[in-house]
Structure formats: C-alpha cells, structure tokens
Specification:
The chain has helices spanning 10-26, 39-45, 65-75, 91-94, and strands at 2-6, 32-36, 53-57, 80-85, 99-103. By secondary structure, the chain is an alpha/beta fold.
C-alpha cells in the first residue's frame, strides 16, 4: 500500500506517519509512506494508480487540500483521500471527491 501524507506542518506529518506505521505493522500490511509539505509538491509526483491512500490537510499555504483533492479525483478516481482538519467547513465538499474527513 502506497500512502501519502500531505500537510504543511512537519510535526503533524511526522506524528501521522508514525500512527499509520504502527497500525499497518500491527496487521502485517506492507506499506510505503511518503510525506509532502504542500499540495503542489505532492501533485508534482502524483500519477494515476501511484497512491492508494492520501491523508490530506485542508488548510495549507498555497493550494489547499480541497483544491488538490479535486485534481487527484480527476486523475485517479480510485485513490482514496482522508481529509485532516480542525474545521468542518469543507465537510460537504469532501463528498464530491469521495473523501473521508477527520477533525480534531
């Protein structure tokens, strides 16, 4: 399973990567986690069928996670997106790109 963590805060990327790794190791699931500090950085390497799952912060400098997820959905509708946010403002829009939302 190839997973992307996209968040502009390094501590949040590191924390989430550790949590994902702990869970996947517990279930003996093979994985590769890539971290990206911006949506633009991630979209530069994103290709169809290159990632199975993306954990995407919504509020980032530059392109926000909602805009990036719309581009991802057009390029690869099978890639699943989980939004990370402290706000429920974009919750209804997330359904348009078949995402899941996690909030603090």
């Amino acid at each position: 399973m190839r997973i992307a963590v996209i968040d502009d805060l390094e501590k949040d990327r590191e924390r989430l990567s550790i949590l994902i790794e702990e869970v996947l190791k517990k279930y003996n699931c093979p994985f590769l986690i890539e971290c990206h500090s911006s949506a633009e950085d991630f979209l530069e390497v994103f290709e169809e069928e290159s990632f199975d799952l993306c954990f995407m912060d919504i509020f980032m400098d530059g392109m926000n996670g909602m805009e990036a997820s719309q581009k991802i959905a057009l390029m690869d509708p099978e890639c699943r997106i989980i939004f990370l946010t402290t706000s429920m403002e974009y919750l209804s829009q997330g359904y348009n790109v078949k995402s899941l939302a996690l909030s603090d």
